[in-house]
Write a sequence for this structure.
């Protein structure tokens, strides 16, 4: 699809948004809006086979995510959003590289519930921040299996209380290998299925 190619070309070289100039951001916003206008899945929450899976972030405007790269001696690696529709769960995993043997990750587990035909309300439940070697991190899928098995990690691993982090996420474009989402803080996310 021409719209996807245009978007992918616009985000190429922006390192998920970290290197995006104001001109890049404008071109990307236009390409996203055009692609959203041709969304082949207008009811994404009913398309669980498409929605379910491990999604890798290609681009975002989320300063919270991009800010991880500003931590001294840390470089933002791959970022994943893993959706498990059967369990109504979302797992956000940001890999962090840095000094040798000090690679890490920041992960948040959340439960979601439908709020409309394309919006989910997200309630964050657990955060894990630590070194990949100590946590035993190898891949998003294996890590999620460990979380679901109730494993406690040798890391900063805590439950997020009811009073804390909640939000919503709209899926504005969904096909077999690309998803675009817009969050409650005005951020946009472009992801590709692994």
């Amino acid at each position: 699809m021409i719209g996807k190619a245009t978007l992918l070309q616009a985000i190429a070289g922006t390192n998920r948004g970290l290197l995006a100039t104001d001109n890049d951001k404008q071109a990307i916003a236009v390409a996203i809006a055009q692609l959203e206008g041709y969304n082949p899945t207008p009811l994404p929450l009913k398309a669980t086979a498409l929605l379910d899976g491990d999604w890798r972030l290609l681009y975002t405007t989320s300063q919270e995510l991009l800010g991880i790269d500003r931590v001294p001696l840390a470089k933002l690696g791959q970022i994943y959003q893993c959706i498990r529709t059967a369990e109504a769960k979302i797992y956000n995993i940001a890999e962090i590289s840095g000094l040798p043997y000090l690679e890490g990750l920041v992960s948040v587990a959340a439960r979601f519930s439908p709020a409309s035909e394309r919006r989910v309300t997200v309630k964050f439940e657990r955060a894990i921040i630590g070194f990949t070697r100590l946590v035993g991190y190898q891949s998003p899928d294996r890590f999620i299996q460990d979380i679901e098995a109730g494993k406690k990690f040798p890391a900063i691993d805590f439950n997020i209380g009811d009073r804390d982090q909640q939000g919503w996420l709209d899926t504005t474009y969904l096909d077999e290998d690309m998803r675009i989402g817009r969050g409650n803080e005005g951020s946009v996310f472009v992801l590709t299925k692994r």
The chain is about 25% helix and 40% strand.
